[in-house]
Design a protein that fits this description.
- The chain is an alpha/beta fold.
- It has one domain: Alkaline Phosphatase, subunit A (3-Layer(aba) Sandwich), CATH 3.40.720.
- The chain contains 15 helices and 17 strands.
- Strands 1, 4, 5, 6, 7, 8, 11, 12 and 15 form a nine-stranded mixed beta sheet that branches. A two-stranded antiparallel ribbon has the order 2-3.
- A hairpin with a 4-residue loop joins strand 2 and strand 3.
- The longest helix is centred in the middle third of the chain and has 24 residues.
- It is globular, with a radius of gyration of 25 Å.
- About 8% of the residues have low confidence.
Length: 488
């Protein structure tokens, strides 16, 4: 019987990637070592998580909590007070507004659509006189901490492309997200937790929840270690963070050490940097077995703190619970926390489910601002609240049937708010027209918004790049201007 030569078979089936990978360890590597010195080749074996920090500018923020509201909150019902909507309630949209505009297929041609007044009244709040709807009393109470950007506009008209555009600068999935770019550019502040953490929630009983796609926190073409780690709302916060029955911590560590040695042999053979990423991720997962359970245990929080976040804070998986965990995460050195809450897609439930959505998110969002301020963290923590676009000033549905009033997707003008991290509090920036339709005063494109966030963290958005498929990519593509007027 002829012996099987597995190693020989492997040599016969070398892939193109493997061929070039092995070639890199031959003449090419020798030439590189000769040019750059031994440090150049040995640097490949260092911990891939130890990314050199980029410092283009003086950073005003060290970390970000992004309270992303999936489904698009209605700006004209929450923040963008337009008396003209009340005056024109029930009348057709004036000529010229919808001309040349693109809406979802649910609206199609917006000509002749009826104007819908705000569902709840607005009032001015704080020393800044910020206009906030009665839907959001807790947010109104911290309005002097907030910067309302009321002139945001985007290129997308449907949810997934618009969310991808807001978070990654491209409507097509596969590009690195904001948290991944920051992880790549700034490195990490802790070895015990990931630098980029994601948590998701949906209001109970909602009929308009959005799907949470993994590419909303993906690393795209950046090394995979920079992607977001999703914390779950039930069971173990992170899958497989607990040892299986019969496996203790010592045994798990021995297995991981053996696996690391096997991966190191594979790296020596193929020089694929993703192999080093794999080693680093296994090591992080092992450390998280201790850090994550301690983080998730909120029994050490004071009664006053828990009460501030509202009645749902004790329930894992809720928005309130996730907001509290976000504060605990940044306290532990996590760079970017993405809290995503779905349910804002009110096509026919603006008079019903919008109340639920605001009740579930208003108090925790405001509590997070207060909590960070009390702990001295708000000054260098940038908090962002907003969705992928706004909602139309005209109605979707039957004006005579209030129970099914709704608003369609609207990309031409909407509001986000920001707080802390070098942003001017107690101000409103930009404006839409008298119907909340188009951004007309100091318009802020999504790429401008992204450039501004990077700027606050000390990064020049034109210089944070990554070469992929023959060209340099960046979060803002070839666009973007920093909105300097909102920066302290």
């Amino acid at each position: 019987m002829t012996a099987v030569n597995f190693q020989g078979d492997q040599q016969l089936y070398l892939t193109r990637r493997a061929l070039f990978g092995r070639a890199a360890t031959g003449v090419g590597a020798a030439a590189l070592a000769n040019l750059l010195g031994r440090e150049a080749t040995s640097a490949q074996r260092t911990d891939v998580a130890a990314v050199a920090k980029i410092q283009h500018l003086a950073a005003r923020a060290k970390r970000v909590i992004y309270l992303f509201q999936n489904g698009a909150p209605t700006h004209v019902d929450l923040f963008d007070f337009k008396p003209q909507l009340q005056a024109l309630h029930g009348q057709p949209l004036p000529d010229g507004y919808a001309q040349g505009k693109r809406f979802s297929t649910m609206t199609g041609d917006a000509k002749g659509k009826l104007i819908l007044a705000p569902v709840e009244p607005f009032a001015q709040h704080g020393q800044s006189g910020a206009w906030v709807s009665a839907f959001l009393p807790y947010t109104a109470a911290v309005s002097d901490e907030l910067c309302f950007v009321k002139s945001l506009h985007t290129d997308a008209v449907n949810h997934a492309p618009a969310i991808a555009f807001m978070l990654s600068g491209a409507q097509i999935p596969g590009r690195p997200t904001l948290g991944a770019w920051l992880n790549y550019g700034l490195g990490r502040e802790t070895d015990e937790l990931p630098s980029f953490v994601v948590m998701t929630s949906v209001s109970k009983g909602t009929s308009c929840g959005q799907i949470f796609y993994d590419f909303y926190w993906g690393s795209g073409f950046l090394p995979s270690q920079h992607q977001g780690v999703r914390f779950r709302g039930s069971g173990d916060p992170v899958l497989y963070v607990s040892n299986p029955p019969g496996i203790d911590r010592h045994m798990r560590k021995a297995w991981l050490d053996d696996l690391a040695r096997m991966n190191e042999l594979k790296f020596d053979e193929f020089q694929d940097p993703e192999t080093l990423n794999r080693i680093a991720q296994y090591e992080m997962a092992f450390r998280m077995q201790s850090s994550v359970p301690a983080l998730a245990d909120i029994s050490d929080e004071s009664a006053a703190t828990l009460a501030m976040y509202g009645p749902q804070v004790q329930e894992p998986g809720t928005y309130a619970h996730n907001c509290l965990l976000a504060r605990r995460l940044v306290e532990k050195g996590v760079r970017f926390v993405q809290v995503m809450h779905a349910g804002w897609d009110q096509h026919n439930s603006i008079t019903t489910e919008l109340y639920t959505q605001c009740r579930d998110t208003d108090q925790p969002s405001a509590a997070l601002i207060r909590d960070l301020r009390q702990r001295g963290l708000l000054e260098d923590t940038l908090v962002i609240w907003g969705g992928e676009f706004g909602r139309t000033p005209f109605i979707q549905g039957d004006l005579q049937n209030r129970k099914v009033w709704g608003r369609d997707h609207h990309s031409y003008g909407f509001t986000v708010w920001m707080a802390g991290g070098g942003v001017r509090g107690g101000m409103s920036y930009g404006a839409t027209d008298e119907l909340g339709f188009n951004a007309v005063e100091s318009p802020v494109h999504v790429h401008d918004f992204q450039a501004t966030v990077l700027h606050l963290l000390g990064i020049d958005h034109e210089r944070l790049t990554f070469r992929f498929q023959g060209r340099q990519f960046r979060l803002t593509d070839v666009h973007g201007n920093v909105v300097k007027d909102i920066i302290t």
